[in-house]
Design brief:
Layout (H helix, E strand, L loop, with lengths): L1 E13 L12 E3 L6 H16 L5 H18 L6 H45 L10 E3 L2 H10 L6 E16 L11 H11 L12 E15 L7
Antiparallel strand pairs: 1-4, 2-5, 3-5, 4-5
Length: 228
């Protein structure tokens, strides 16, 4: 962990309600409880459930799987090949939709599990470091192009030049992944991460900067080329 005073960094931000308060000349303090990243992750699943008729994901899956079972039991040889093909196409389409929803919900659950485990390791062993649940992510000029291209390529976003006063922590972002075999693997990755070590399974360090403190917004850019 490094204490910094009036040091300039860049911050890449997706376009959302947070941007309403991010104006040139504004002073931004990192939140005391949870940042936009963690809030969105915690509440996004509820929004998806509401779009499914106020059902929980398990209720929704149970309902869909039961319907698939009924369709399968009632399926009989159609009168012609066209009816058969249309019936199969409809069944496959519904099944793919269900798999897509299940995949998204599984990813969301794994993200939350990962973040809770990472935060628990930080609190118990590295409590002086900035929290992923409260921090604002920064980057330097050298890594700006890389993060711009990797940060949700199809999502509208902005770049802010900021002056930072507070504490920062340099970590290897490649350790933040979901492809684990056991939940205990998250704890192993968290220990490497909070020790500031490099991912032993990756050739290059994918530096991310966690910041807690006060930011002054100096400039706002609509795209990467404006920063060159």
């Amino acid at each position: 962990m490094i204490e910094i005073i009036n040091k300039e960094f860049f911050h890449i931000s997706k376009q959302n309600s947070k941007n309403d308060s991010w104006k040139v000349g504004t002073i931004i303090n990192t939140p005391s409880e949870s940042n936009y990243f963690f809030d969105r992750m915690a509440n996004e699943r509820q929004e998806k459930i509401q779009n499914s008729g106020e059902k929980s994901i398990l209720e929704y899956l149970d309902e869909r799987l039961e319907k698939f079972g009924e369709q399968n039991r009632q399926m009989h040889l159609p009168n012609n090949e066209f009816e058969f093909n249309e019936s199969v196409k409809s069944f496959n389409s519904q099944l793919l939709d269900l798999l897509d929803i299940t995949k998204k919900e599984l990813e969301q659950s794994l993200k939350m599990t990962r973040e809770l485990i990472f935060e628990n390791v930080r609190k118990t062993q590295f409590s002086n470091l900035p929290s992923r649940q409260r921090c604002i992510w920064l980057t330097n000029k050298k890594d700006l192009e890389k993060w711009w291209s990797e940060f949700e390529p199809n999502r509208s976003k902005k770049i802010y030049l900021v002056k930072a006063n507070g504490k920062i922590f340099y970590a290897d972002g490649s350790l933040i992944k979901l492809s684990v075999s056991r939940f205990s693997d998250f704890e192993t990755l968290a220990n490497i991460y909070w020790n500031g070590a490099k991912n032993p399974n990756e050739e290059y360090l994918q530096t991310e900067i966690l910041f807690e403190g006060e930011l002054e917004i100096l400039e706002e850019y609509q795209n990467l080329s404006e920063t060159l």
